Every structure is written in C-alpha cells, then in structure tokens.
Amino acid sequence: MNTKYQSSCFCGAVKLQLTGSPEAMAYCHCDSCRHWAAGPVSAFTLWKPDAVEVTQGQDCIDAFDKNSSQNNGAVLSNRKWCKSCGGHIFTDHPTMGLIDVPAVVIENFSFAPSFHVHYQETVLPIKDGLPKFRDLPKEAGGSGEQLAE
Asked: Is the pTM of this model over 0.85?
C-alpha cells in the first residue's frame, strides 16, 4: 500500500496529494532557493511527477521561471505558488524529471534529509554529519564534489 500525504498552500485554496515516498530529501543552500524560501536554507523533497497530484485549486496556481533566460530557454525550475495567498506549492524541475515539494508544506511528514546541495553558497553552515555537495550529486547532473562541514 502506498502512503499518501496531503499538502497545501498557506490559505488552503490549492491542495496536493503525494503518493509513496520521495526520491530524495535534502537541504538546498543556493541563492535562488534561499530567496524563494525567504530563509537561509531550503528543506526540499523530490517526487516523481506521477506521485504528485493537484486535488484542488488548479486554477489558483501560477508559476515563475527565473532561469530560462539564463540557460538558452531551458526551464530548470518552474516555481509554483497560489495566486490567492502567495504560498509555495511546488517547483517543477523538468530537466531532472522531478517535482520539489517543500518539506514544510507536507502534513504529518517526517523529513529525513540525507545531504546538502549548493553548499558553497551557504550562509548558514550546518554541522549535522550529512554530505555537503559543492553543487549537486553526480546522479543529479552535478560534479559530486563534497565540501567539509
């Protein structure tokens, strides 16, 4: 039986159902994610697209892609939010074939991160013993280079 999780924007107008388990859970320290999250680090979960279903409020979802103008039109991260409250919903990463749902918006979910990405940009060093990737793991298209805590 697949576990099902519920997620929603800040006002509840948009709801998601997540099925199964995420492909990865980690922290991102990149400038883009920090600005989007309005915090020093972003806690994310990555899901296969077929595990993420919008169950309410599809018409309330808007999106923004900051990176395509910098990457020859390639959409690297299409950030989705609720038009009613501005609350974050998810980020589509089409080049990775995964959807990032912020851990904080998933109800009754046990966030268990296994690594950090873009640690060279950190403004909040975290000493937790987890691998700290300079950019991304090789499996995700990065260098796989790890940095010291």
From this structure: yes
